[in-house]
TrEMBL record, chain A:
Consists of 3 domains; the N-terminus binds the ribosome, the middle domain has PPIase activity, while the C-terminus has intrinsic chaperone activity on its own. It is found in: Cytoplasm. Involved in protein export. Acts as a chaperone by maintaining the newly synthesized protein in an open conformation. Functions as a peptidyl-prolyl cis-trans isomerase. It catalyses: [protein]-peptidylproline (omega=180) = [protein]-peptidylproline (omega=0). Its main location: cytoplasm. Keywords: Cell cycle, Cell division, Chaperone, Cytoplasm, Isomerase, Rotamase. This is Trigger factor. The gene is tig. The keyword Transmembrane helix does not apply.
UniProtKB/TrEMBL annotation, chain B:
The lineage of its organism: Bacteria, Pseudomonadati, Pseudomonadota, Gammaproteobacteria, Lysobacterales. Keywords: Ribonucleoprotein, Ribosomal protein, RNA-binding, rRNA-binding. The keyword Aminoacyl-tRNA synthetase does not apply. One of its GO terms (cellular component) is ribosome. One of the early assembly proteins it binds 23S rRNA. One of the proteins that surrounds the polypeptide exit tunnel on the outside of the ribosome. Forms the main docking site for trigger factor binding to the ribosome. It comes from the Bacteria. GO terms for molecular function: rRNA binding; structural constituent of ribosome. This is Large ribosomal subunit protein uL23. One of its GO terms (biological process) is translation. Belongs to the universal ribosomal protein uL23 family. Coiled coil: none annotated. Part of the 50S ribosomal subunit. Contacts protein L29, and trigger factor when it is bound to the ribosome. PANTHER family: 60S RIBOSOMAL PROTEIN L23A (PTHR11620). InterPro entries: Nucleotide-bd_a/b_plait_sf, Ribosomal_uL23-like, Ribosomal_uL23/eL15/eS24_sf.
Amino acid sequence: MQFSVENVGKLERKLTVRFPAERFESQVSARIAEMGRTVRLKGFRPGKVPAAVIQQRFGSQVRGEVLSDLIGSTLREAFEKENLRPVANPSIDTTGKPENGEIAYTATFEVMPEFPEIDVAGLEVNRPVAEVTDADIEKMIETLRLQRRSFDVVERASAEGDFVMFEYAATAGDYRFPAEGLERAGSVLGSGTLFKALDEALAGRAAGDEFETEINFPADFGNPQLAGKTAQVSFKIVKVQAPNLPEVNEEFAKLFGIADGNLDTFRKEVRANLERELKATLMGRLKAEVAERLADVHGELEVPNLMVQSEAHNLAAGSVPRGQQPPPQLIEAAMPMARKRVIAGLLMGEIARKQELKIDRKRVAEQLAAIASTYEEPEKVVELYNADPQLMSGLQNRVMEDQVAEWVAEHAKTTEQHLAFDEVMRPAGA
Amino acid sequence: MSNERILNTLRAPHISEKAARLAENNQYVFVVAPEATKADVRAAVEQMFDVKVEQVNLVNAKGKVKSFRFRAGNRQGKRKAYVRLADGQSIDVSAKA
């Protein structure tokens, strides 16, 4: 077997391989002889099919198979000898016909870029740090109470936080909604379920009240006929319900799966939950930060086009409904972002290789337990992960990325950025 | 002979161990129409495969008698043609069939 490598582009390589046709022919005849023993053809007893007949029937199929097998094995051999690391499957071009007793083919593919020295120490990484405080726990419990509140019918006039059920009809010009009768709706005052002007109109009314008023519908109202218009609206209040927040007591704790209803255990459980979420979010932020910095520093790194394209495709696919092809301009728009991600991903992989970071079994197990604990039957989830190599390797990748990010953060100029819990969890709302 | 008759003469290549063995001796086996004559088969093979036919032998093979629920029935019979080609000529049966 002979081969030669040609550099087409910066990362593109063209590999021409020749191997003797005898090697091909002998494999073909071996395959045909083997088929003769197993194949069943009408008109022949099993095992009595002559080679000539098989050749005639399955010849081209067998040849194709043998050729692709041989190409695969010789290509692997060539990659090993030349120390090439192709990014994706090479595209093969061949006639498949022997010439001068040799069969030749060319493989075109892209290789991994040569990585420059990755200077981690020069990176300036902002590492977000946060802790769960007692105040955060109280806040969380407050949110939980709000989720579990019940509503009781009251006779008094409605106030902020009350649930008001009402019937209404809106008239704007000669458009009336609904066309006839009344539409029933409900709103928790002040929660922003419906728009503000409506909430104001509904405040201070008791059940049975009937009144009419002018309301400015907001421009983004769901019904386009009313959106942005001023309408005469007649209301009829059906009922007013006051919210009833549950007491933080044993009953409440039991609602959340604390069997003995011990409030301390409940608090602990809430804290554990918050801490787990916080940890995951912090890790995600650190990872994004490290990736960002790496990509910034090595922005000019030559990366394989194919990878960028597939990443861009993935990114674009995320913004259209599942199973639909993203439009080309979306893919185009995603290109710079995709490039950045590919660079960061490659560099992180390279760091892991250079530093010989090993996947930490314990961390994988921990992560798995964390994922599983959010499901109803954690053991089943763990089983599922253990049984499915694809899921498992996805998980391992994530852990590996975590480890690399941490390693980078340790070795770079890291400034710790102290944040409150809320700022971490809700960066946009903070 | 009309074109239609030629196309109706040859029904299928007859595939069997015997036929495969004979193919090495330049003899090919076809299932032909029951009313076909040796001349028909010769003309049909020469025209369809563009070869020179040396000899045609015809055989009528009766269908087997099979009984189903004690009732005798007959399978269909067939008429086979053993066609010997002139030396150095061949037919790729599976390619045309």
